[in-house]
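Write out structure tokens for Polyisoprenoid-binding protein.
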Amino acid sequence: MSATISESTGLAQGLWTLDSSHSTVGFMVRHAGISKVRGQFTEMEGSLNLGQTLADASVTATITAASFSSGDANRDAHVRGADFFDVDLFPTLTFVSTSVSGDEEDFEMTGELTIRGISKTVSFKGEFGGVAVDAFSATRAGFEAKTVISRKEFGLTWNAALEAGGVLVSDKVTISLEVAFVKAV
């Protein structure tokens, strides 16, 4: 039996739209085995549909691959190119949830993540941040979630060997979501 969504949290049933201007889809990958490179995607859209229980909830998201930004123009151009995202052939990354479990505070959301046309099942562990009505009378809900993927499983195999051993870019990539949704009126 799945947890019932409580009205006391402010999470109303129905459609919620991703507020991309108040959301971040970020990543972190180890570079040269000694440091971490962080960045984000700046263009995204998505929706959250809440039913009576968490098991009834569903999320869909589409991210524009060309919006990849790590703060370094040369690296960003390389990652957008054929060695990594190949944004001309694969302009979007998508996520479609298949299940949500847990409770309103701590949840796990599983779904199909598609990168470079390759779909894999991933699970995000997350936290509910709360609900607030903003100055413009919009009802907003905030969530944070993380997962770790193998970039090789999505066809992102480019790498370079290091003189001291190891490789330039780690296989593991942490994806971090800090997202806000607005309740549809």
